[in-house]
Amino acid sequence: MLNNIYKLGRLTAVAGALAMSVGTAAAQEVTLRYGHMHTPNSIAGMQAEWLAEAITEKTNGEVAVDIFPNSQLGKLQELAEAVSTGSIAISHNTAGAIGSLYPPFAAFDTPYLYRDIDHLMAVMDVDSPVMQELNEGLVDASGVRLLYAFYFGTRHLTTNQEIKSPDDLEGVKIRSIPFPIYMATVEGMGAVPVPVDWAEVPTALATGVVEGQENPVNVVVTSKLNEVQSHMMLTGHISAAQVIVMNDDTWQSLSPEHRDAITEAAAEVRERATAAMLEAEAEDFATLREAGMHIVGPEDGLELEAFRTRVSDRIAEEFTAQYGELYEQIAAVD
Predict the structure, then answer these.
(1) Residue 146's closest CA among 87, 198, 84?
(2) Is the Cβ–Cβ distance between 181 and 320 less than 8 Å?
(3) Is there a contact between 47 and 67 (Cβ–Cβ < 8 Å)?
(4) What angle do CA 333, 219, 226 make, to 5 degrees?
(5) Which of 82, 64, 65 minimizes the C-alpha distance to 73?
(6) CA distance readout (Å), 256 to 224, 262, 263, 330
(7) Which of 1, 137, 278, 310 stands 20 to 30 A from 164 (CA)?
(8) Is residue 17 exposed (0-12), middle (13-18) or buried (19+ Cβ within 10 Å)?
(9) How far is residue 130's CA from residue 119's CA, in Å, rounded to a whole number?
């Protein structure tokens, strides 16, 4: 009896993530729900639309994707859990957030970890040796699988004052993504980390709950954070990929042809979104400068090596024992 209840629960979860109907040609029509936290005009938001379009095209309309942006279906942690339970089929999130489902995934968002963006994307490729192993672990631990990852940008610090060294951040409250590796990063930068979900960040900045935040430049532009922040420091502390994940029961319920079509669509969108983000970064910096935001880099006295040392020491203190072997595997990826 207990086994039957378990099976019923799994079926109910899959039903929440997708809807099915039988068409006149007896083809199974499936609609997948995709929830995320970003604005539709951001690259993260646009790539969700690109994926939906590509899946519909490659399955001849037999699989559709309904997209719910702007945290309509939940906050960061809730979105990760919703994919795990099957109440939604697809979402994207930080690797740190997916680490709440399977801890090793959080290691991918370690600051100053990658040699360059090419190294980051090689590691985050779904077919890389590192990712293949961790993807299997993610499926086993949480019922969630990685579809693909795209370059999400390099994270920089914003505040309402010029910051040149970690000492300048003493006592300053900086919003942190509410997951351990991000909290430790902000602390390593010399600030006081305050966990705030992304949906609440603009209000938190405007009301002084926090005095700064850290994000890629595209997020700053598309969310108009320059309207409540005057300075951006080019700390470049995390080069990150946004990971697109899918409920595994939903994945297994699809036909082999539909899974192949989604895999093909994922590979195309990964490349398109990464190229779009790389192209947008230069334009976004120009947009911020034109809007009057002060951009502070090493040529302006930013002590980048001090940030790198302080953050790396703080991360090593808390995470090397847990992720040290994984860090070595990541370093070995060509």
Answers:
(1) 84
(2) no
(3) no
(4) 135
(5) 82
(6) 42, 10, 10, 31
(7) 278
(8) buried
(9) 12
Is 225 buried (19+), middle (13-18) or exposed (0-12) by CB count in 10 A?
buried
C-alpha distances out from residue 299 to 23, 80, 220, 233, Å:
63, 40, 22, 11
The tokens for 147 are 């579809």
CA 48-99-262 angle, 5° bins? 30
Contact 237, 214 (CB under 8 A): yes
Backbone angles phi, psi at 72, to 5 degrees: -60, -35
Structure tokens at 37: 């936290």
Tell me the two tokens of residue 78. 């809730």
Strands 18-22 and 28-35: antiparallel
Distance set, CA 140 to CA 100, 102, 249 (Å): 14, 9, 11
Residue type, position 97, single letter: A
Helix and strand numbers (H, E) in the chain are 12, 10
CA atoms within 13 A on the CB side of 28: 11
The SS3 call for residue 41 is: coil
CA distance 277 to 268: 14
Q: pLDDT tens digits, the chain, 334 residues: what are they?
A: 433 333 344 444 554 565 543 333 335 589 999 999 999 999 999 999 999 999 999 999 999 999 999 999 999 899 999 999 999 999 999 999 999 999 999 999 999 999 999 999 999 999 999 999 999 999 999 999 999 999 999 999 999 999 999 999 999 999 999 999 999 999 999 999 999 999 899 999 999 999 999 999 999 999 999 999 999 999 999 999 999 999 999 999 999 999 999 999 999 999 999 999 999 998 999 999 999 999 999 999 999 999 999 999 999 999 999 999 999 999 999 9
Which single residue is written with the structure tokens 């539909």?
A: 258
- Token couple for 237: 């502390």
